[in-house]
Amino acid sequence: MKLTETRPDQNGVIRKIGGDAHFMNRITAIGVTEGTAFQTVRNDRKMPVLLYLRETLIAVNRMDAERIEVEAQ
Amino acid sequence: MMNRIALLGQPNSGKSTVFNALTGSRQHVGNWPGKTVEKIDGYYTYKGTRFTVTDLPGSYGLSGNSDEEVITTEFIKSGQADLVCILVDASQLERSMYMAAEFAALDKPAVLLLNMMDVAKAQNKEIDHELLQKRLGIPVLPFTAADGKGYDGLRALFAAELEHPHKLTSVPELPEAAAASSGTSSDAVQAESEAKYRWIGEILDGVTRSGQKHHELSRRDRILLSPVLGKFACFGTILLGFLAAMVICFPLMGAGSMIPQLLNKPIASLLTSWNVHPWLVSIFSIILPNTLYFCIAMSGFVFGVNLVFGYLEEIGFLARAAYQFDGLLSGLGLQGKAICPILMGFGCTIGGTCGTRVMDNWGQRMLTMAVVWAVPCASIWTIIPVISSMFFTPLQTLFIIIGILLYVVVLMTVVSKVFGRRLVPESSRSGMIMELPPYHKPHWKHIFKEALLKAWDIFKRALRTVTLISLLFWVFSYSGTGNVADSLLYKVGTSIEPVTRVFGLGWRTFMGFITSAFAKEAVLGVLNAAFVGEGTVLDATFRSAFNVAADNAVLSQAMTDVVSKAEALAFMCACTFNIPCVMALSTTYRESHSLKWTARIAAFYVCGALILACIVYHIAALFF
């Protein structure tokens, strides 16, 4: 499923990140890489998705969050 | 031997705190050649030796192709830095070590600063820095940048390392296929990043325990991050912050306003008794004390705003505000953080302008300043209702105010379209991907010191700009006889009246328009001088702050006799959307370090205001 489809407090693992090299650089530099465990903290309509990963609270705008495939637990 | 140290770190790593604490006021801000990225250099002396420090632009990594990342990589590669100090956030060690992993490939002498040890301790995180040092092969120093202690140790470490430098002995092993096409395909980037995090994992194994896996939002975050309530909470906090800034700077401004009052008469009578030419008397008794007052008022604002913003940024509030308003502002090409300076602009444009310091890069900052200029400041709201009530009914006045507010939104959009393309190129616009740092306890001493530093800096720099512009205004408005008709402004104004009429303005209202670019508070006084003939324009402008003696009833009578409703409407629009004031102009120049862009934006606002006046006048003339 997509990151944007996860529920708050749901745990999961990042599976696939789509996008060009520029986006890949930005998203991986902040810590989001394939295989990383995460927790969705907030996922509100029209707001960036808030996730907790590598001990950091990270906000990812919705358009980019659409490109992140996750496996939810 | 130059002894140049470069500071490298991700946003929120405390880089600028370390830089400011090391160099104090011995800083130089310029631009990297050919780029709209700030180059910040400073120096300090330790045991008789001079050390130069470069604050490299902040970014999360180095492999991207943003200006910041390219500049940083090139600078380090070129060997201009003799030592690189990598800052990492000890409370989020794994993630912030990514910068060290990126740096590793550059193979240059370095030290690692484990910053925010206080936060890490508060979270019960233990870090075996000696083991980390052994694994990396470079010195590792636990540190709390915002705490004044420890800087002697840091300076000593820098001195020792410049003598006997160390390089990283362990570097991430990058996949071969990725190394060949480094940074070009997204698969390669992905593989490289994974390799870097793998290396970080190996390095940190046994150095620190893995932290909590589950995050529970604090009560404060549950409010600030909720979609609706959070926006109101952010609004309220910024409003409170602005009020606090005003309370802080008010005594300073009050004291400043005493200067012209106290100095004007004694200087004037002293110089007159020495038979000094009246020209010089008016310069020394009116212009100079007022310039001093303007600059004190400005630095008072800068101090108050920096104190409040420094606090809000350090505790982590600004990141939350950015999260809340990113969607709204990204349409203008701005970051969510811009909400703070924009709201501050309703109070004072100077405050809003220096509030743009929180923006991530120069282009964003310049664009935010340009947008903040569109926001009508508190002074405008003291003159518009007065003028409007002379010509219109209260209900009409209300509609005029609503119209002005609606036009603010239009103007902001136009400004962001006109300047955004150059300042924040489409290719650099990307959706928000940012870290929301944990709430920090504020270090007041550090915030206070930094605010004081900025205020003093603005004061020194503004003195020159404001004096220059004041003198220019003086040349135009000086009148030997005290009669308006003997000033250059009158002569120029009346001779170009056929042109200003196109914009709906007679020479008197045009004079008011020119004044509104100088100081909004002065507009009523100048109108009084022009319409009623009481007092000189010079006195009206420079003493307006403490001498609002204009009798509104008399002015109203005199104005309505000569000015049509359509002209009044055009005049109000022109004044509101003109250059905010000479102090805002000067602050923008000082904050942006770009005369070119400040002039461009100023020209845009003057022309924009006149075009608006022209349109409003000709439409209104059909009705009234």
What does this structure look like?
- The complex is a heterodimer of chains A (73) and B (624).
- Chain A has two helices and five strands, in the order E-H-E-E-E-H-E.
- With 73 residues, chain A is α+β, with helices and mostly antiparallel strands.
- Chain A has a single domain (3-72), classed as Roll (SH3 type barrels), CATH 2.30.30.
- Chain A has a five-stranded antiparallel β-sheet with strand order 4-3-2-1-5.
- In chain A, 53% of the residues are buried.
- Chain B is 63% helix and 8% strand.
- Chain B has a seven-stranded mixed β-sheet with strand order 2-3-4-1-5-6-7.
- In chain B, strand 3 (38-46) and strand 4 (49-55) form a beta hairpin.
- Chain B starts with a strand and ends with a helix.
- In chain B, 49% of the residues are buried.
- Residues 545-549 of chain B have low confidence and may be disordered.
- Strand 4 (56-60) of chain A pairs antiparallel with strand 8 (433-436) of chain B.
Structure described in brief:
The complex is a heterodimer of chains A (73) and B (624). Chain A is an alpha+beta fold. Helices cover 18% and strands 38% of the residues of chain A.
Supply the number of helical segments of chain A: 2
At the fourth level of CATH, the homologous superfamily of chain A is Ferrous iron transport protein A (FeoA)
Overall shape of chain B: elongated
Beta-strand residue fraction of chain A: 35-45%
Order of helices and strands of chain A: EHEEEHE
Q: Indicate the structural class of chain B.
A: alpha/beta
**Gross morphology of chain A:** globular
Q: What is the CATH class designation of the domain at 4-204 in chain B?
A: Alpha Beta
- Could you list the spans of chain B in which at least 5 consecutive residues all have pLDDT below 50? 545-549
Most extensive protein-chain contact, per-chain counts? A-B, 41 and 45 residues
Q: Give the C-alpha Rg of chain B.
A: 28 Å
Distance between the termini of chain B: 75 Å
The fold-level CATH name of the domain at 4-204 in chain B is Rossmann fold
CATH architecture of the domain at 4-204 in chain B: 3-Layer(aba) Sandwich
Name the helicity range of chain A: 10-25%
Helical segment tally of chain B?
28
Number of domains of chain A: 1
